[in-house]
Design goal:
With 119 residues, the chain is mainly beta. The chain contains no helices and eleven strands.
């Protein structure tokens, strides 16, 4: 099993910045990639960004390109999401995600952290 613990959410004004962290523990060797999803009230969960553990290849949703940066520290088994130029529409619960190497296996999820962008 893999456990994911997020931190770093909070309230920020439009144009501000936040950094989210996700620490993984347990069977890390099962993980192929980690990333972030978000879910706003009344909306479906959507992928924000992802990064592969070995090569560090990244992928971003169009809505966050140029504003958000995902990075990893494999020594700490931690993934970060630096969010800049935040907008009210970025308000959501952000969930850390880990995708197993075994494609038939279920993803792992964190408990979520609230990000609110408001003046």
């Amino acid at each position: 099993q893999v456990q994911l613990v997020e931190s770093g959410g909070g309230l920020v004004q439009p144009g501000g910045s936040l950094r989210l962290s996700c620490a993984a523990s347990g069977s890390i060797f099962r993980i192929n990639a980690m990333g972030w999803y978000r879910q706003a009230p009344g909306k479906q969960r959507e992928r924000v960004a992802s990064i592969t553990r070995r090569s560090g290849d990244t992928n971003y949703a169009d809505s966050v390109k140029g504003r958000f940066t995902i990075s990893r520290d494999n020594a700490k088994n931690t993934v970060y999401l630096q969010m800049n130029s935040l907008k009210p529409e970025d308000t959501a619960v952000y969930y850390c995600n880990a995708k197993p190497i075994a494609t038939w296996a279920d993803d792992y999820w964190g408990q979520g952290t609230q990000v609110t962008v408001s003046s």
